[in-house]
Specification:
51 residues; mainly alpha; elongated
């Protein structure tokens, strides 16, 4: 059910005539996924694990 709803939501966003940068980014994230992990944020954790 969730997949059907997301597919419909993406179609609505894609059909929008006046897409702003946020909508374009939202479409990309929904279709391709999003990885918000940055290596620089992992440095303290990696340091802790190595000690």
């Amino acid at each position: 059910m969730d997949r059907i709803m997301m597919t419909m939501f993406v179609r609505v966003l894609e059909r929008s005539k006046n897409k702003d940068e946020g909508q374009i980014e939202a479409i990309s994230i929904i279709k391709n996924g999003f990885d918000g992990v940055k290596e620089e944020n992992l440095i303290p954790l990696l340091d802790w694990l190595n000690h």
